[in-house]
Amino acid sequence: MSSEQKQQSLSNVHSSINTENKTGWRRLLAFIGPAYLISVGYMDPGNWATDIAGGSAFGYKLIWVLFVSNLIALLLQSLSARLGIVRGLDLAQASKNAYPRFINFCLYILAQIAIIACDLAEIIGMAIGLQLLFHLPLIWGVSLTLTDTVLMLFLMNRGMRKLESFIISMIAIIGLSFFVEMFIVHPDVMEIAKGFIPTNLFKKDAVTQQMLYITIGIIGATVMPHNLYLHSSLVQTRQITRTNDGLKTAIRFNLFDTSIALNLAFLVNAAILILAAGAFFRNGYFEVAEIKDAYKLLGHIFGRVAPTLFAIALIASGQSSTITGTLAGQIIMEGHINLRIEPWLRRLLTRLLAIVPAMFTIIYFGDDGLGKLIILSQVVLSLQLGFAVIPLIHFTSDRKRMGKFAIGPKIKMLAWGCAILILGLNGKLVVDQLQDWIKQYPNMAVVIYGLVVPVTLAIAALLIYVFLRPILFKHKDMPAQVPHGLATEITDLAPISYKKIGITIDFSKNDKDCIRHAIMQGGKAAHYVLIHVVETAGASYYGTDVMDHETQSDADNLEQYVLSMKELGYKAESRIGFGRAAKSIAQIVNDEHIEFLVMGSHGHKAIKDLIFGTTVNSVRHKVNIPVLVVKPQ
Asked: Is the separation of the CB atoms in 288 and 276 below 8 Å?
């Protein structure tokens, strides 16, 4: 089996949307969607912070940076979509096949840091939006962002189309809000046109240094590394005919989708920067780097409508971005390190890791420190970009695996040019930042030279390796590692005879079905152990020493089952467990050397599972024997 045969990316929604048997605009609409989920990452609160900082400090001068960033994003996202369509792999899965395990682990850690940095911006943006609209303290708003896990679960369970519809509605709210605000601000059209002329970012003066820092933040906020992973997976939610014509059609329609969605994102970002330039720079407010200050100044200058629209759009932006961040985290974890966990837990872990620095900043530096933290998070995103962009260019230009759909020399040169630009700006930023730290904190020189510099050099060495390996080992992929392994050859299917079978009993109507299924496995030759667990408070504390009314009643009822089975000619005995059901069942299974276990499921779903627990799954992970689950009729 080749390395291309693997576990599907986002398997619960893989190929869930049919694009066949459709013509004209209906077929185009079938492909529309993935790029809109990507585009929300290009207009999240991190973008707002960098756009506001750039517009207030330098007026319209950085519009060209937004425009170039959007062109880079269009190129890289189209390559990401091409990889997912042609090879049927997301970027993390392709990296897993191309790089050794340790390198994949390092790439996962860096990608996870980028997602946390992105989530940090969304947390702060949501918290600020809630504070501006409802006057909630920031620390409360940050805490409330944990609850968006429930919304993400609901949307994922409703299907990909429902999720895409929600995201598009959020984008519509953001776009409409800024469209109205443009009429309120009345920007200078001629100055906007001049803003498309590039400026020199490599001068040595302090103003240019500040402009470079914000420029890199804008690039990091616009071309997000986790979006490259996400797009290569989302395009696989469409069913396509895997012929040359079918792949070519899918690439063309996804290019339309990407172009429309990302150009809309560019218009929103440009609107934010223009709003900041027209409202703040033009009125002498040159250092508005805080989203809250922007809100207050909008109210001071233009009345109540503009700031209210601003806050509503901010909340919509944060809420939509956090959902796409969850999907990207799932793709990166499953792809790079072969680990699959529940999406709600994945979301919760990422959110908790992002909440900690936000809480720390509020407690120790006050509310005013959050704006700087948002811009820093976007710079971190930009520094991670090389580790996603370099493999992506290698994979999509590999003619052996991409065939006729490998990118041509011109596109390849453009892509490498973008990578060099990103890496060049990032390298200059890192060197300048290290020099500034050494000058500002001479007492910390030992720490900087002994810790920060070696870590920086190690990351640079990793980047060089990521670049060189596909060139040096061009035709050698690593063995594919998939969550559930590869199929093995089947040569012998002789029936298995179980001598000792366990049956869990809960004195419900499901008991009869459980016993029936058990005897179908072992017949009258097997020995059956009927298991019941007493979960009273007394049983939890005192275990086998307890003999309350419920325990005695349960023991008597269990013995009735045993007697009934013996009368029918089956060998049976009873065992009572105490305390937590899963732990007690697993202990009895191990103590009695049971070879096969039959369990009845309680039939809980969603919220009930969180409240009552999932005994079946817990037991399944605690025992090393086959478990047959019998659902209630």
From this structure: yes
CA atoms within 13 A on the CB side of 178: 26
* 0.85 exceeded by pTM: no
Q: Burial code of 290-303, b = ≥16 C-beta within 10 A, e = fewer? A: bbbbbbebbbebee
Please name the amino acid found at residue 166: F
Residue 54 CA: distances (Å) to CA of 161, 167, 178, 207, 361: 36, 27, 17, 12, 23
| Residue 486 to residue 39: CA distance in whole angstroms | 35
Evaluated on CA atoms 259, 260, 261, 266, the torsion sign reads positive
8-state DSSP, 526: S
- Write out the two tokens for 498: 């179980």
14-52 per-position pLDDT tens digit: 444 445 555 556 655 666 667 777 777 677 666 767 777
Q: Are 128 and 314 in contact (CB under 8 A)?
A: yes
For 606, residues 6+ apart whose C-beta sits below 8 A from its C-beta are 153, 157
pLDDT digits (tens, 9 = 90+) for 219-260: 755 677 778 888 888 888 777 777 888 888 888 888 888 888
Dihedral Cα 123, 124, 130, 136, nearest 10 deg: 110
What does the block give as tokens for 123?
A: 């947390």
Query: What is the rounded CA–CA span in Å between residue 273 and residue 282?
Result: 12
As given in the structure block, the two tokens for residue 423 are 């890496």
- Give the Cα separation of 107 and 113 in Å (integer): 10
CB neighbour list of residue 416: distance below 8 Å, 6 or more residues apart: 393
The 8 Å CB, 24+ separation contacts for 538-541 are: 539/578, 539/579, 540/578, 540/579, 540/580
- d(CA 576, CA 580) in angstroms, rounded, equals 12
How many CB atoms sit inside 10 A of residue 200's CB? 7
Q: Alpha-carbon distance 304 to 434, whole Å?
A: 43
Instruction: Detail the DSSP E strand segments found in 392-520.
Output: 500-504
10 Å CB burial of residue 511 (0-12, 13-18, 19+) is buried
Cβ(263)–Cβ(66) below 8 Å: no
